[in-house]
Amino acid sequence: MEDAAELQRLFALETDDHHLVLDLKDVTLVDPDAVKLLARWEAEGIKLQYCPAYIREWIKRERFRSTGRTDENSN
Description:
Layout: H1 2-13, E1 21-23, H2 32-43, E2 47-49, H3 53-67
Parallel strand pairs: 1-2
Helix pairs in contact: 2-3
């Protein structure tokens, strides 16, 4: 969680005119708290690049659990 807090601090330093991208190609293991953070960051506009399929599915389930909505029916 310490690394996540540092990432959050760095994200907060960026200005709104930047499009942040988080490269997840080397990520092989995440815990539930990390998935919640990834889902929140993505909802805030941070692009998750090279997100492994199992993490993408977990984020989708987390979004549905927390909001009752998926990307497909959020319009």
